[in-house]
Amino acid sequence: MSQSDAPARERVKQALRTQRIETPSWAYANSGTRFKVFPQEGVPRDPYEKIADAAVVHRLTGAAPTVALHIPWDRVDDYADLAKHATDLGMGLGAINSNVFQDPDYMLGSVTNPDPRVRRKATDHLLECVDIMDATGSRDLKLWFSDGTNYPGQDDIRARQDRLATALREVYDRLGPNQRILLEYKLFEPAFYTTDVPDWGTAYAHCLELGPKAQVVIDTGHHAPGTNIEFIVAFLLRVGKLGGFDFNSRFYADDDLMVGSADPFQLFRIMYEIVRGDALRPEAGIAFMLDQCHNIEPKIPAIIRSVLNVQEATAKALLVDAGALAAAQQAGDVLGANAALMDAYNSDVRPLLAELRADLGLDPDPMAAYARSGYFERIRAERAGGQQAGWGA
Amino acid sequence: MSQSDAPARERVKQALRTQRIETPSWAYANSGTRFKVFPQEGVPRDPYEKIADAAVVHRLTGAAPTVALHIPWDRVDDYADLAKHATDLGMGLGAINSNVFQDPDYMLGSVTNPDPRVRRKATDHLLECVDIMDATGSRDLKLWFSDGTNYPGQDDIRARQDRLATALREVYDRLGPNQRILLEYKLFEPAFYTTDVPDWGTAYAHCLELGPKAQVVIDTGHHAPGTNIEFIVAFLLRVGKLGGFDFNSRFYADDDLMVGSADPFQLFRIMYEIVRGDALRPEAGIAFMLDQCHNIEPKIPAIIRSVLNVQEATAKALLVDAGALAAAQQAGDVLGANAALMDAYNSDVRPLLAELRADLGLDPDPMAAYARSGYFERIRAERAGGQQAGWGA
Amino acid sequence: MSQSDAPARERVKQALRTQRIETPSWAYANSGTRFKVFPQEGVPRDPYEKIADAAVVHRLTGAAPTVALHIPWDRVDDYADLAKHATDLGMGLGAINSNVFQDPDYMLGSVTNPDPRVRRKATDHLLECVDIMDATGSRDLKLWFSDGTNYPGQDDIRARQDRLATALREVYDRLGPNQRILLEYKLFEPAFYTTDVPDWGTAYAHCLELGPKAQVVIDTGHHAPGTNIEFIVAFLLRVGKLGGFDFNSRFYADDDLMVGSADPFQLFRIMYEIVRGDALRPEAGIAFMLDQCHNIEPKIPAIIRSVLNVQEATAKALLVDAGALAAAQQAGDVLGANAALMDAYNSDVRPLLAELRADLGLDPDPMAAYARSGYFERIRAERAGGQQAGWGA
Amino acid sequence: MSQSDAPARERVKQALRTQRIETPSWAYANSGTRFKVFPQEGVPRDPYEKIADAAVVHRLTGAAPTVALHIPWDRVDDYADLAKHATDLGMGLGAINSNVFQDPDYMLGSVTNPDPRVRRKATDHLLECVDIMDATGSRDLKLWFSDGTNYPGQDDIRARQDRLATALREVYDRLGPNQRILLEYKLFEPAFYTTDVPDWGTAYAHCLELGPKAQVVIDTGHHAPGTNIEFIVAFLLRVGKLGGFDFNSRFYADDDLMVGSADPFQLFRIMYEIVRGDALRPEAGIAFMLDQCHNIEPKIPAIIRSVLNVQEATAKALLVDAGALAAAQQAGDVLGANAALMDAYNSDVRPLLAELRADLGLDPDPMAAYARSGYFERIRAERAGGQQAGWGA
């Protein structure tokens, strides 16, 4: 379909209107590499301030109404109060992200640790996260395990899978009726020889064994070089096991750059598979989440930019002329089919998105609106004292 | 265990005595890259001569009693006669490898082709391979699909999975009681954008859906950079879905070099997971096959060397002191556990293997024995005329 | 600058008007992978027909006035006659590509072969290529060496460098006053352990040693995963050693897909460095060449598409607002600087290019114009008999 | 040569006797990933304690007589006193490693920062390091720049090279007669889009421009996947520009694991090129340094193991029968040449090294000797209080 085709534009805008992108509380806080965390001005000092920043992103984009929490970084005494704070700001609390990688006990693993005491402690933390979900009303428990080994022989690869399965089962059985596990995989880091959930196949196999409330989450930065991520998207959608995304982008390893910044064409191809699999609408249950680190760029505008990048890729995916594409594919017309896809990708969808924002009563240019808003100047002043939030706090 | 420990040496030798490595008929023939196939002297001209060469490898190593066939490269009028030829030489026929990548009809795919006529043709070829298995008594049907796409949009990723599943089901249902499918995966080449079975997860999911007679085969050269292959071995063994190996080695892509030549430590780690999973003994049903190309080195000695490399890696794996390793692992002794593994790897097992060969009445040095045998001089003379076998013949 | 800025549009069009993209004779012929070459209809049978096809590409795009030759694939008795044939079709002959990888003698290397006789033969071929350049009036001798080894120890890495330097020196000294060497590098394939010119550093070091008439050529498909190609472009421009490009694209290894099809953003970044280094204008001496394989798609339209892809990336690069970018860079405004670049990339330059073509009296849509032209139908009929050209012919 | 050949054994032992491996002060301190630094017991609290630990490694291995310092982590008031402390422990101070990546000013780069004030500050730090070298008598200034960018467009790639060249020149001109620059390169991290010295080619080009006192240092963990490191070793030795190594090992990115633990065959191949290039003897001026992180394993034994791994790889490299290898290479005997190399690699050199240690009056098993020594129990008790050293201290 052509962009100049008015009904098509309306259809695309209608689909975009329903898209929800969840931003992560930790992306508003300081982050860095093992070499250095460069502190920035105005960074939140607690979960309340993180949610306040997330609310700004939503206010400007209209597309980011929930914020994911990370436990214990976002631990508070009263989650109901935190949820009310979010509601007051027009926000909701999203996925609960567990953390079993920062306690000294987890040096050799959490739920896969050879020591049963440590496994118990780690599993208890995961169960605590479900308790928090009950309090926040969150649907998704996101599980990422840093577990693995650094040296051949360090531990038994297969025994660690048994331990993993045991812990996952216990947590799965604790889930409420509207809750689910999103199991994340990652090729490497912080473990450097084996990772206990290194790829989508491992996550898929465990989710299949667990049952319908366990699904795979794809972090776009967690693959081996050359991996075709949109293939995984298509495959998991086909078998009903795609739970969502941790969006970010990478040139090398798990760079955690702004989504769409390293390979915007890849992001488009991913979103095309989402559209093709009819998985964009909220009822499809795919969680579109960001998981990024803004090490050197200001955090709030970086997150706004990321939301826009996802929207632009989605808009292009929606522009693909499905009929022309299918006809060319069926005819074995390699260049024609490729051209049908590229025609959408090469379109400039920014005017259409500006129009959508105007329809919604938003500023057509969220980046400029943020710059003009004075919000940064305010938080820089207000948050000058105290302890900035980061990965360790 | 120490090599100087006599009962341990006997135990290791006993295990090695049972190991069977299958060599591929096509490795005796000419091969090359897309740039050039360099013909060599003495290369077989038909399947009978390939089997004769394989018999030499077995006669000298005592460890390679079967030869895999590739259809149509090894198509003959009378498979019973071919099997008799093998038996007469002390050999058996092994896995049947299908070929759905060289007919002009397969340019855009075989069983996943958008054209149903081509899919039918490809599936029929796979069924013909089962007919051949009936004739040869082969247990394993090895399926590798070159199917995929070169350009984004070229075809529908998900529809191709549906087509693949349909074809696999039809072939699976045709299998006899003692036959099975070994489904191979490969990251890329000859397809350069998507491959329809690109990774172990995809192969595993299809095999699971098919049933107990479908298992995954790991080609050691078919992974993305950084993939931990021994993890996949351990994982598939745990879930009962490892069917076998296509051994070779690689520095870059699918280099198809002699197994163990690029990363002998990796081969050792793979064989260690086999030993640890008690999967070395023939009853475990793991097919240890070579799948290599000897583009620039003489073929028969290259294959002998490859068999020796697998044996040496296996011997080292068997030397691992399982008790010491488990104790160190359980104690969280990272360096101690690593050392238990490395102690075996750093051993020189060549004397032990020479001793084993002497026990079996073989020459302790198969490479030297081949050089002395005059076999090459004979085939060079005898096979001077005619059409040499290659990938296309 | 904005696209709607009329003087800017004129400036961009003016720059695009000077861009020259050379197409390779072999891309019009059959190609494939080691698994299969799928023949296509209408493929040229000799260099004359290849040039005729290249002339069609130029006639439709106005941007591809020269065609590169490959010796011996394009060997003819009378190069003056071939050059006249080109001129008659409005074309010129471009770079001469040597081939020292297909003679049986080159199995273990050409100019780096341990055997001095083979080295002599290979060097003589390179000298013959300079003779041909004298006849065709070509400026550039493109040297790609497939030389390398497959196994550790196979040959002496350092001695091979000495042999390489010797051959390069002899060829360099034979160059005429307006001739130069373009030295290509490649990570791997067909050699799988070492390649004698594996990276830009090696090519650069040799070119530096040779002198001003030796420059590095970047094949965009010849790098290790993760390599930042635009960095190399910027670096070589800075030191005056960039000679040109072999354009194509890749997802995995040396896929040789249509340039811009796998990562259009990368192509844009490369062209941005060209623009930033003021190297687009012909006097800068950068050769913009395609080097691709159209294994499954029709060749002529694939080459037209490739030329358009380079033009579109160039147009976007020219649209970058240099002043805004420099200001943001100097201010340390990470997001602002990135946005200045992305603003150009996200533009749809197809209307501007259509306008340029109209200015030049060309059809604004070369792909459609080709489809309508009837050329394919004609060559399919005319070239039905005879031996199709390919890599081996 | 055979190990059983007594003169050969003596020759190998003689060569090993001269080998010097420098250990890095920071490897004795705490380290980790961006996710967590797990503190260990007994870790040094200042440079004096680090040197004390390094002295233990040397006392047990006889091969690690110097320790590299990192400024500012090892900044002290009186470097002469620190040097005397080392001497008293039988140690020397080795390379001075600069640090221009941890000051908040360096968020967007140090010597390549767009801000001239920051560049001045960074260059001044490098000059301060030369002052320290004057005080410590160190020969080598190791320069690693984390400089780079995270996003396309963030800064001007080429201008950063100009700034880099300017800073390097100033430092080079400050070097004393017996001092040199070792310039390190790294593909990525902490920068994720461009790195200003990403590969050996860039380091080589700058060193060449600087002059004879600038050489390239190879960190074995700093390459793109698939890079052939021994090729780089051979190449840089040939052109006289190899300055030394930062040894460690990797499976994925810059894992900083114990050298030889991930790919012992690669380490052997590297050491073979050193032996083949006659660069093992100290007069050749190659600095063999470790640069590792012991995130989860105890530090001192990990470093002992690393020293042993380098020694074992070196011993195997020395065992290669150079005559047999050269003969096979010259004859084009691919398998024979490979076998000549592998024969040495497959040898168990541990008995020879134990013999060498006995000759030197050392315990034949340094790992066991350390475990028995009680040193760890002592430092665990003595260093219970205070602030442990780490990357940030």
Automatic annotation (TrEMBL), chains A, B, C, D:
GO terms classed as biological process: L-lyxose metabolic process; rhamnose catabolic process
Keyword line: Isomerase, Manganese, Metal-binding
Keyword Isomerase among record annotations: yes
InterPro entries documented for this protein: L-rhamnose_isomerase, Rhamnose_iso-rel, Xyl_isomerase-like_sf, Xyl_isomerase-like_TIM-brl
One Gene Ontology molecular-function label: metal ion binding
Origin superkingdom: Bacteria
Residue ranges constituting the Xylose isomerase-like TIM barrel domain according to the UniProt record: 77-249
Record PANTHER family: L-RHAMNOSE ISOMERASE
Protein name: L-rhamnose isomerase / sugar isomerase
Species annotation: Micromonospora cremea
Species classification: Bacteria, Bacillati, Actinomycetota, Actinomycetes, Micromonosporales
